[in-house]
């Protein structure tokens, strides 16, 4: 059975807030929520995987940005999170597949994301739907 | 002696084209050039490291994009390239430092880039100015 | 509940053979069995995790070898295998802990093993009982 | 021009000691030297790359040990070190190639070694003569 995925809506805020356990200050979370709702083209779209009661059990925040290597767009899946109590049922995979559909709808030439090397549970899913690149990330 | 870095200009096109050995079709290169010159806020800025004759010997294409984890911006150094005949003289480091200054000017909360795991020569420089993250990248 | 671990014995051969799904020719398996039973000091010891009927459900082949960095020995856990149908019950961890006890009994100054980077299920256990080193392995 | 490699000899001790900058207590170094000179089959052989005056400029300590995956032996290159002032002239590669010859002479079915992930200078040589495996190392 595949999980249904839809766009995040205003009424989802309490559940979104619970799911989005960011380790950032509350004001950043409020800013992110406001930007998600504003729907400007330079910010992420938000997708939610929902259960039978249409309650979000997982979320994906997806940014489309320009690349010097693409005439169209790159699709960056910045956040992917599923309620720990609702995992291993396909919600993560459904969110990735919905992200792919959004990328395809915009003609994106690449969809990508990063994850911690030791995030084994997530990587076992990612290995099935994507390819681990040979790129390592540097940060200041 | 530190290398001078400045913004890319129209007159740099022939040298930029030679430096930017992208493995993408010529039309993408033309599109990228046009976008760099247009200077829209959703596209990369281009920095060049220049020699004493003000001729570019290296380039950096830098994108500022929104993040769900930042009230301001993230700074993504997508391309960093130095003429092989002019390497090991600090041009790469000068371009990264110039990128940091651009990021600081915009209040970016993160500056990052990726490189191939086996790009040893570049990584020996990156290790001195940044931190390798524990993140691995997945792609479709 | 902890799994019991004991030394491999002659009567275990049929089960050992089934567990030891080496991708090597049958003759190598026979040679390995003969060497395990011979018990020479330059070959591995074999430990088995057993169920309530004393039937092996997992095995460990452990070599003690000299090192230029140790006055005593290094302990190399070359094979660690648990029947897929009996996993996630602690047999792997029990085998590692028994290996540690054997290493301690010989005064080994290091116990180590390798695993494929993408062997997530095993690594989630290894992360709890050991430390991933920063070493990568080269082979001819 | 290829570097000459020969077996370590008693008279090499002062140079060997200088080259072998182990971060282990002096007593371990003495034990290692004594074992190298004793030449027992369960300990490493020592190879040295020498300059025109037959003075060692680099060393390799190589252990042959049993494996459950081999009817013969595995060859483990535990230490490979070249005087920093004499690098980039082929001594490291010559020592690896001499190790391969020793392994072949014993019918070893694998020759391997490990190195720190960020040891870029060494890895650029290793990439030319061997293959990086997908194995990561765990240690207690």
What labels would you give this structure?
homotetramer; 140 residues; alpha+beta; five-stranded mixed beta sheet; 4 helices; 32% helix
Q: Give me the secondary-structure category of chain A.
A: alpha+beta
- Largest sheet geometry of chain A: 5 strands, mixed
- Helix content percent band of chain A: 25-40%
**How many beta-strand segments of chain A?**
6
Q: What is the radius of gyration of chain A?
A: 15 Å
Distance between the termini of chain A: 43 Å
> How do the strands line up in the largest sheet of chain A?
1-2-3-4-5
pLDDT below 50 for ≥5 consecutive residues: which ranges of chain A? none
Oligomeric state of the chains in view: homotetramer
Strand content of chain A: 25-35%
- Which chain pair shows the most residues in contact? A-B, 47 and 47 residues
What's the SSE pattern of chain A? EHHEEEHEHE
Overall spatial form of chain A = globular
Number of DSSP helical runs of chain A: 4
Taking all residues together, what is the mean pLDDT of chain A?
A: 92
């Amino acid at each position: 059975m595949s999980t249904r995925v839809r766009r995040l809506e205003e009424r989802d805020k309490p559940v979104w807030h619970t799911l989005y356990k960011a380790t950032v200050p509350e004001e950043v979370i409020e800013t992110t929520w406001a930007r998600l709702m504003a729907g400007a083209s330079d910010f992420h779209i938000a997708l939610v995987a929902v259960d039978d009661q249409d309650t979000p059990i997982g979320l994906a925040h997806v940014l489309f940005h320009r690349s010097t290597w693409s005439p169209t767009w790159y699709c960056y899946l910045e956040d992917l999170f599923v309620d720990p109590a609702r995992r291993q049922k396909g919600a993560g995979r459904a969110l990735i597949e919905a992200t792919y559909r959004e990328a395809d709808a915009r003609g994106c030439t690449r969809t990508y994301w990063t994850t911690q090397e030791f995030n084994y549970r997530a990587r076992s899913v990612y290995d099935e739907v994507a390819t681990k690149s040979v790129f390592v990330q540097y940060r200041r």
